[in-house]
Design a protein that fits this description.
mainly alpha; 77% helix
């Protein structure tokens, strides 16, 4: 494992995750979220607990990159795209539709969570693949 590339990818993924979360939830989906505001905590209550979300996102970003590099095959952007699709389907599909079943949310919200989450994971996968490119070891070098 190239520790420098790992740390760089981890930090970039975390920062990009926060930026994309802001764009998705506070810009794109705000009208949809407002329609179901009786299901969620108040904004003040949510903001007082936001530090928990940041800790969760740091841990998530670490493992997103860690899992990627454990299966790293040196196949470039395509590998990041594929990884993003796998993680997007694994995380976003399950989370969006589980929330739809458990909470009284409009179906359009679950569908948007899934679609935007999948797009987000694809972007993060591609970025991870672009950053994590360890030097190829020279044969016979120590």
């Amino acid at each position: 494992m190239n520790k420098k590339m790992f740390v760089t990818a981890f930090i970039v993924v975390f920062v990009l995750l926060e930026i994309l979360n802001y764009l998705i939830y506070y810009v794109i989906m705000m009208p949809t979220l407002e329609s179901a505001k009786n299901v969620f905590r108040t904004m003040d209550d949510m903001m007082s607990k936001m530090w928990i979300m940041y800790i969760a996102d740091v841990i998530w970003s670490f493992f997103f990159v860690f899992i990627f590099i454990k299966g790293y095959e040196r196949k470039g952007i395509g590998e990041g795209l594929r990884y993003g699709i796998y993680i997007g389907l694994f995380q976003s599909f399950i989370a969006a539709y589980a929330q739809y079943v458990v909470y009284p949310l409009p179906y359009s919200m679950a569908l948007q969570w899934f679609i935007y989450g999948l797009i987000q994971m694809i972007i993060l996968g591609i970025v991870t693949a672009l950053i994590y490119k360890p030097k190829i070891a020279v044969e016979g070098a120590a």
